[in-house]
Amino acid sequence: MNPAVALSGRRRLAQGELDMMIEGHERLAAGRPGGKRLSLHFVDISGLNLSGRILNDADFTGSTFDGARMIGTKLERATLFGCDLRKADLRQAVLTRADMRGACLRGANLTNANLKQADFRVGQISVPHPHKGLDSMRHESRGGEMDHAILAGASLDGAHLAEASAFATDFSDCSLRGAILTSANLKDANLAGAILDGADVAGANLEGANLEGAVLTGVDIGRARTSGANLTGCLVQPSHEALLRAPFLAQTAKAHHAWVSTGGKGGSPGKLDGEDMRTLGDALKGMRLTAISARGACLVGMDFTGAHLQGANLEGADLRGAVLKGCDLRGAKLARANLTKADLRGAQVCALPLGPDRATPAALNGCRLRYAQAQAADFTDAILDGTDLSGADFTGALMLGASLRDANVTAVSGLDLGVDI
């Protein structure tokens, strides 16, 4: 038998051979001459290094990646149908709209990976004979399997996980907005702090699962099996009272906007402390809300894109999954706020000038920025003491003079550790 062919019938690739094939695929992706789309069916890539490579639209049907290193690998729309990815390191990998039907991710590490709209549904898998290899194939239906995998902080919005098996899987702080989890096995899974807005859990097994602090807005948890599940502190849909207050909250924000826009000549300053403002959705995008007070407010998933929030008091506010892209947060008070999975790309979270030689720094001490997107944001002179930055992405962010004493910087991307820690 050819030693390069495993008993499973899959041809074993060497690192050098794989690198040459990937280079051809990357040339194609970049529009350079000599490129060729990568199509590798039923090959053995176990233990090899694909980290950081661009493999969008590649086809790896039926291949084995057992223990492969794939950190930050781009696999958008890639075909991983029936692949064996057990114990693969896929941290921060991009697998948006990837075909994962019938794939096995048992024990794989997908921390902070992007799996939006990935397809984990049942697939008809061709399995080589253990001794006769590809010459003798059998077919079986297999759902996506990710038992004991780590998906902490991952993005699975709109993913198809119907009938998938995710026993004792770590989904903590991940986003599963609109995910299809019908009849999925999530027994003993860790979903603490996960955002499941609008997810379909009909028939799902959530027995013994930890859903502490999870966001269950629009989720009919009664259609799932939840015996022994921890549902402590779950955030469900806004109360009837909150729905009735929505017009008042909108008017308060508009009056504050007018007050700021006219320099105090019109409107009135708003106070929204402790309010559940989720009913406003994206109504506050671009608004002038300078110095507004929303201490302890529930702002989960809201869209503030481009809003003026200079000097705003957002202490203790729940901003999980909120969109603060391009916002002006100079001098804002965000101490103890929860910004897990928030989008702060391009935001100004720096000091607010108050006059000659006077400025108020943005205060984020003790807040949670776990898995937040902070690329190209400005944190100049910001106070981030005691802040949890686990898994956050600060690529291209300005951090001059920022204080990070006692901050948790585990697995942070792009952070210049030359700042004050």
Task: Give your account of this protein's structure.
- The protein is largely without helices or strands.
- The chain is built from two helices and six strands; from the N terminus they run βαβββαββ.
- The strands form three sheets. Strands 1-2 form a two-stranded parallel ribbon. It has a two-stranded antiparallel sheet with strand order 3-4.
- Strand 1 (11-12), helix 1 and strand 2 form a beta-alpha-beta unit.
- The longest helix has 22 residues, at 240-261.
- 53% of the residues are buried.
- Residues 1-7 have low confidence and may be disordered.
| Strand proportion | 5-15%
N/C terminus separation: 58 Å
CATH architecture assignment name of the domain at 240-421:
3 Solenoid
**What would the CATH topology of the domain at 240-421 be?**
Pectate Lyase C-like
Number of β-strand runs: 6
Radius of gyration, CA atoms, in whole angstroms: 24 Å
For the sheet with most strands, the description reads: 2 strands, parallel
Q: Give the number of helices.
A: 2
Strand order of the largest sheet: 1-2
CATH class of the domain at 240-421: Mainly Beta
The helix-strand sequence is: EHEEEHEE
Shape: globular
